[in-house]
Amino acid sequence: TQLLEQSPQFLSIQEGENLTVYCNSSSVFSSLQWYRQEPGEGPVLLVTVVTGGEVKKLKRLTFQFGDARKDSSLHITAAQPGDTGLYLCAGVSTSGTYKYIFGTGTRLKVLA
Amino acid sequence: EAQVTQNPRYLITVTGKKLTVTCSQNMNHEYMSWYRQDPGLGLRQIYYSMNVEVTDKGDVPEGYKVSRKEKRNFPLILESPSPNQTSLYFCASSPIDSYNEQFFGPGTRLTVL
Asked: Does the CA dihedral A14-A22-A106-A56 come out positive or negative?
């Protein structure tokens, strides 16, 4: 069974601080996605990374896919209260079955 | 507006009483999926479908059924619900391409007494 471990589980920081969330697995994924979920809503896709070593930037958010396509990180620069939410990584199986494996999530709170 | 809709949004039922949660998407996506979300466990895939009449088990399919008779609809059926199926359920759809970007519905909070 493929597993994705996310760390940290909880993070409470002050506005303006930087942070990194990690998503690790012993399995290879064909692609990896990051979502953000607000209370009472479904997850919303932030980014998809497909190629090993790929780096994508979305304003203050930087996403990286590991060279071996087993891990990923999300770095937020100068966090703002609007970044508060649950961040989820999700890997797509390489077996061609399009099964999704989600990490357990990182709950981020940014204090003003 | 492109969206995934789920009904009902909230449901309280009793053990053993069959129920169906509907899911519909208007984006002509081939892929549809059901997840349950539980505290500390994240999202776990129940069933998915890569196209009409094609369904497959995810990681936690026990106690659930699905069908995909039309491209836009993917209902989740609980034939005999039990309290351990109390959870927040999400339906999602995506095109089948290299990016597989999933669009999620608003969720259905189910309580089984």
From this structure: positive
For residue B85, give the 3-state DSSP assignment: helix
Look at residue B27 in the predicted model and tell me its pLDDT: 94
Indicate the residue type of A63.
Answer: F
Q: How confident is the model at residue B60 (pLDDT cuts 50, 70, 90)?
A: very high
* Token reading at B47: 């069933």
CA distance to partner chain B, nearest, from residue A74 (Å): 18
Chain A 16-35, residues with CB within 8 Å of chain B CB atoms: 31, 33
Task: Give mean pLDDT, residues A66-93.
Answer: 94
CA A75 to the chain's CA centroid: 9
Residue found by looking up tokens 């259905």 in the block: B108
Query: Which has the closest alpha carbon to A34: A11, A14, A10, A4?
Result: A4
Average pLDDT of the segment spanning B48-58: 93
Which residue is associated with the tokens 């199926």? B85
Using an 8 Å CB-CB cutoff, list chain B residues near A51: none
CA–CA separation, B76 vs B88, rounded Å? 13
